Amino acid sequence: MTLKIKYITLAVMQVLFARRRVYRIILPATLSALPLSALADNYFNPAFLSDDPNAVADLSHFEKGDSQAPGKYHVDIYLNKQLVSTEDVNFKAAKGGQDDTGLAPCFTTGRLEQMGVNTKAFPDLAKLAPEQCVPFAAIPVILHRVRL
């Protein structure tokens, strides 16, 4: 009888240790499969671009994902969904507007008239100097399609 109890006890112990062995394998495998991530902003140190610490570039307008640097861009210009011209347009840094590029095109009132815009319908434009850029409150700029 005691021999039978010893065999039963031995069998129970083997089952318990077998389960423990399985748990030792499954638990770490399961935990390693869990996604361990954290949200953080990307930061690039602009000092890496220059050997001179006094000539560090301003990269603040690139912190947002969809921004462009001010400058000249070759774009298609549309007026009332009709292609007017394709030309180099100077873009200046601007805040606000409908897009997130942070840019506004620089057109003079004379250039708008050449493109067929009725500038007389906007009395505020008459107050501008001839070489001054027209302040567009909101103009959609789609630079990835190089289109105004």
TrEMBL record:
Question: Does the record bear Kinase in its keywords?
Answer: no
Q: Which GO MF terms does the UniProt record name?
A: fimbrial usher porin activity
Q: Subcellular localization, per the record?
A: Cell outer membrane
Q: Which residues form a coiled coil?
A: none
Record-annotated PapC N-terminal domain positions: 43-140
Q: Where are the transmembrane segments?
A: none
Q: What broad class describes the main subcellular location of this protein?
A: membrane
Keywords (A to Z) from UniProt: Cell outer membrane, Fimbrium biogenesis, Membrane, Signal, Transmembrane, Transport
Q: Which organism is it from?
A: Nosema bombycis (strain CQ1 / CVCC 102059)
Q: Does the keyword Membrane apply?
A: yes
- What GO cellular component term, any one, is given? membrane
Q: Which gene encodes it?
A: FIMD
Could you tell me which InterPro entries the record lists for this protein? Fimb_usher, PapC_N, PapC_N_sf
Among Pfam families, the record links this protein to: PapC_N
What is the official name of this protein in its record?
A: Outer membrane usher protein fimD
Domain of life of the organism in this record? Eukaryota
